[in-house]
Specification:
181 residues, Methylamine Dehydrogenase, Chain H, mainly beta, 4-stranded antiparallel beta sheet
């Protein structure tokens, strides 16, 4: 993934990729809380359905590169911020568990299927257990982020919340290690 493609992906905070062979599908959640696909060639958006009929508000998405399962994180507007799996065909969300210390601003996976999230409440990178939503804090950069992503080489990127800058983030410490012009 080139930096320009990555910058575009990070800046589309709720967009995640799912690749199957040479086909790539972009998934996002629109303002009406509907799961949608985006054709990367044309930009056409196709609505799948409202997530759980609109009863669960998803604010972050990520696809596990090993299993192909779509995960979503909810914010506080539903009560407790939670982790869900989301059926890509029906938009049905299945609860995994509650995040113990607040919502994750964004989610991303590394190539080995390890789930990461960013807590804007504490401005920290966290590793998330996919089975129960328990969180291990890695560390922080002190930033409010707008998007988080990791490439296949294991380099983690984040965009500041105001979309003013793109940075490389250490997945080991949560610290900024470089800025990208």
């Amino acid at each position: 993934m080139t930096i320009n493609r990555l910058a575009a992906a990070v800046c589309l905070a709720l967009v995640c990729l799912a690749a199957a062979g040479s086909q790539t599908t972009l998934y996002s959640v629109n303002y009406d809380n509907q799961l949608v696909t985006i054709d990367p060639q044309t930009g056409d958006v196709t609505v799948i359905s409202a997530i759980n009929g609109g009863s669960v508000r998803i604010n972050s998405l990520a696809v596990d590169p090993i299993t192909g399962i779509l995960y979503g994180g909810s914010g506080r507007d539903d009560g407790n911020p939670c982790l869900y799996t989301i059926d890509r065909r029906t938009a049905q969300a299945t609860l995994i568990g509650s995040f113990p210390d607040g919502p994750m601003r964004d989610l991303t996976f590394n190539s080995m299927g390890i789930l990461y999230g960013w807590s804007n409440d504490y401005r920290e990178l966290c590793r998330i257990n996919k089975a129960n939503a328990s969180v291990t804090v890695i560390g922080g950069s002190g930033s409010w982020i707008g998007g988080l992503d990791m490439d296949s080489d294991g380099t983690m990127y984040f965009a500041e919340q105001a979309w003013s800058a793109l940075y490389v983030l250490s997945s080991q410490t949560g610290a900024r290690v470089a800025s990208i012009p």
